[in-house]
Structures are given as C-alpha cells and as structure tokens.
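step=encode ok
step=design start
structure_in=
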C-alpha cells in the first residue's frame, strides 16, 4: 500500500490540520478490511471492540496497547496437514493481519477474551480526578471545590442559552 506524506504541506499552511488529518485517515482506511470488526459503546465510559477471527488461537494473536494506539496482530501458525491431502477450495482466510485502533486519551484495555472465533476487547475511559471539571465558588460563597457532573453542566448550558 502506498503511503502519502502530507508533512511538507503542513509546514507551509496554518489552520488546515483537520483537513490533513482527514486526508491521511482516508488514505489509511482504503487498505485491507480483514478481519471484520465491530465497535460498541456499552456505557458512558465503556467500549467494546469485537473482531471475527475464525481459525485463530490465543497463541496466534498479539494485542499491544501503547499510548493512544491499540494494535492487534495475528499470525497463523501452520497446521500439519495429513500426507496426501490437498485443498480443493480455500474460503477461510488464514492470512496474517494487523489492525490498529486509535484510542482517546485516558482509555485503557480492561480485558481481552477469545471464544468461538470472536476476539472481544473491553475498553474503559478513566479520567483522572485532577482533570475533571470543578465548580468554583464566586466571592467565597462556598470554600470547597466540587466536581461538576457532565449532565448538570449540559443542562446549565442549555438554560443559559
């Protein structure tokens, strides 16, 4: 697959970073679609990625989480075929693969399970306490800081409008 590098254009333009990100992701996504996968949101801060990996064993798969990138690699180990047998039709993909997922900040892999040809990877977003929004009192009305619930802040934004 040919890779296009937009770095020289990024240096000479200002404010078009989003456009170049879209172009790079479209070039990256035109490749192989194997193995098929689903991404599911299971709660406010819980996600699940499911990959269809028929014929792969746990030892054939390597899952690596590094900063904001989750990489799943599969290398099928050759199974010994009985002497004198030959394949008449090959419809089950036995090729190796590498699938990458970009993760948002503070998202970590909590569990991975392979059963019935389906690899299930559970993800959890854990925002540190220091990064959560806090309500600050004006003129010392309240001396302590309290964490703002995201649903409360959304309602107050709508009320203000």
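sequence_out=
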């Amino acid at each position: 697959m040919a890779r296009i590098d937009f770095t020289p254009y990024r240096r000479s333009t200002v404010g078009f970073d989003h456009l170049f990100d879209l172009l790079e992701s479209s070039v990256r996504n035109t490749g192989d679609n194997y193995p098929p996968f689903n991404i599911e949101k299971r709660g406010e801060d819980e996600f699940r990625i499911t990959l269809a990996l028929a014929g792969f064993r746990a030892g054939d798969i390597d899952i690596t989480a590094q900063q904001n990138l989750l990489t799943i690699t599969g290398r099928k180990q050759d199974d010994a075929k009985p002497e004198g047998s030959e394949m008449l039709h090959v419809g089950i993909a036995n090729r190796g693969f590498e699938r990458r997922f970009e993760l948002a900040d503070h998202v970590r892999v909590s569990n991975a399970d392979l059963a019935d040809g389906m690899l299930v990877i559970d993800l959890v977003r854990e925002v540190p306490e220091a990064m959560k929004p806090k309500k600050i009192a004006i003129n010392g009305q309240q001396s302590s800081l309290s964490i703002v619930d995201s649903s409360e802040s959304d309602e107050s934004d709508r009320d203000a409008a």
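step=design ok
step=annotate ok -> The longest helix spans residues 17-28.
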